[in-house]
Structures are given as C-alpha cells and as structure tokens.
Design a protein that fits this description.
Elements (H helix, E strand, L loop, with lengths): L6 E4 L3 H11 L3 E4 L5 H6 L7 E4 L9 E4 L2 E5 L4 H6 L1 H6 L1 H7 L5 H6 L2 H7 L5 H8 L3 E6 L2 E6 H4 E3 L2 E2 L6 E8 L6 E6 L9 E6 L2 E5 L6 E2 L1 H8 L4 H5 L16 H22 L1
Parallel strand pairs: 1-3, 2-3
Antiparallel strand pairs: 4-5, 5-10, 6-7, 6-10, 8-9, 11-12, 12-13, 13-14
Length: about 270
C-alpha cells in the first residue's frame, strides 16, 4: 500500500528537529531508521502530516561510560549496539539482544531509540530496557526530563513521550549481577518474537505477553523468596495478557513464557 501524503523535513541538529516538530504539532512524527513507522504508514495505521527526519543526527549515535552508567544515544543502530566493545563488556544482554533483531538490513538501519519510542510489545529491546532498569531521557522545547523504563510504556504503541518530545538517550546502570539471558521463540529468525524474555540478575521482562513489554512480577517475587529457576518460572504467565492470533492462542503463549523463563533463569544462574 501507499502512505497518505505527508510533508518531509530533514533536521540538521536536535534543536532544529525540536523546532520542526513544534511547528508540525501533534500531527508530526520523528523519522529515524523507519523500520517501525513506515510499515504503519503504508497500512494507513499511522497518518502523520509531517515527518521530521532525524536519521543523520550523528550527535545522537554513541555508546559510552558516563558517571558509573552506560549512556547510549537514541540513534545508535542495532548493529552498532551488537558490535560495541563497551556493551559486550558491561551490558552483554543489550549487545546480544540487539544482534538478534531482524536481519542485517534491519540492524544496519533500525535504532534503539526508534524501537523504544515505537513501543511495540513484540519488539525485543523494550523488554531489555525494562530488565536493565534503564532510564530514558527525552528532550522537548522546555528542556530534558528522565523517564524510568517502568513508566515509559503506557499501551500498544503508546509511550510517556509528549507531542514534540524527542527521545535522545538511554542511560543504564552497570548491573550488580553478571547473570543475564535473552530468549525468544520465533517462526523464523527474522520474525517478531511470539514470546521472548530478558533476564538481568533478578529482573525478568517479557516480550509479547501483553499490550506493552512487561516485568514478570510474580517470577521476580518468587526469586526474591528463594525459589529455584524452575519453581519461579512456573509463575511466568501470572499477570500477563497475551493475545490470541495467527501465531497461537493465549494458552500457547503462556506455555512458551514458562518454558523460556525457565531456560533464561537457568542460563543466567550459570553465568552469575
């Protein structure tokens, strides 16, 4: 299908991007890699009147250590995340998960900020951000503010970003535990996860088990009470609301969640 007509503007800096977005109002959208937004536009599920292209803002593409945390620019691509020596050393969960996103073309163009701002519950990196306890930095006309990943994802394709705000950076504390794992089940390697799980220490987050990426609270509580991985994983489907669709009924996804959480916890324990 063909997208509805729109006005295209390219920003040369973050300040210009914010100015262009303010001019566009609520009918404007930022365009980064385009792998999330463009398919929605082709289906007319998103009909922005103005696209503000931020894809060439190199100032938002970086991975660096900063004051005891890891700072990741929102326009850092999945491929750059996967290859980052800093992430491989300090946040291997993020480096590994980024390397599992889509195919090489998607990893070359898609960005971490685009994935988080798009807020697709079937995407990998939003759940990873939850498991890592990330803080997302947004910048608007009135300045910058920090949003905890737990408070960022509000609904299907809905986030705490206000109109005209741009996600500029993801800040992640260095984990206190070396244990981590990322598991997902797909029909093909390049497909969205039918179910996925990200584990960092005692933090467990689920992919595609509700309208947003979610923390597996019942699993985390069981672990805090001293439960073994298999016992804790039995609670993986509690508090979730997976969809019934062509990939499988709700009961199938609940079963997958229990299996994948067990595998992830066991792998994480072996690493920790």
């Amino acid at each position: 299908m063909i997208p509805a007509p729109f006005t295209y503007k390219r920003a040369a800096s973050v300040d210009e991007a914010l100015d262009l977005a303010a001019q566009a109002g609520e009918e404007g959208k930022f365009l980064a890699g385009g792998h999330s937004l463009m398919p929605l536009m082709k289906l007319r599920l998103a009909v922005p009147e103005t696209l503000v292209d931020i894809g060439r803002l190199t100032e938002l593409s970086y991975v660096r250590e900063d004051d005891g945390q890891i700072a990741v620019g929102a326009l850092t691509t999945h491929g750059e995340l996967a290859r980052s020596d800093v992430l491989r050393r300090e946040l291997p969960l993020l480096a590994h998960a980024a390397g599992q996103v889509g195919d090489p073309q998607v990893r070359h163009c898609g960005t971490i900020g685009g994935s988080l701002a798009h807020a697709d519950p079937a995407a990998d990196l939003p759940a990873v951000a939850l498991a890592l306890g990330a803080t997302l930095r947004a910048r608007g006309q009135s300045g910058s503010r920090d949003i905890a990943a737990d408070d960022f994802f509000l609904g299907l394709f809905e986030t705490a970003l206000q109109p005209g705000e741009l996600l500029t950076e993801i800040r992640i504390p260095k984990p206190s535990s070396a244990g981590w794992s990322f598991q997902k089940f797909t029909k093909r390697g390049i497909d969205w996860a039918i179910v996925g799980v990200a584990v960092q220490g005692a933090n467990v987050a689920l992919v595609n088990m509700g309208a947003t990426p979610i923390r597996a609270g019942a699993v985390e509580s069981a672990l805090a009470s001293g439960a073994a991985p298999r016992e804790a994983a039995a609670h993986a489907a509690e508090g979730t609301n997976p969809a019934d669709d062509l990939n499988g009924p709700r009961a199938y996804r609940e079963h997958l969640a229990r299996v994948l959480v067990r595998r992830a916890l066991e792998e994480s324990s072996a690493r920790g």
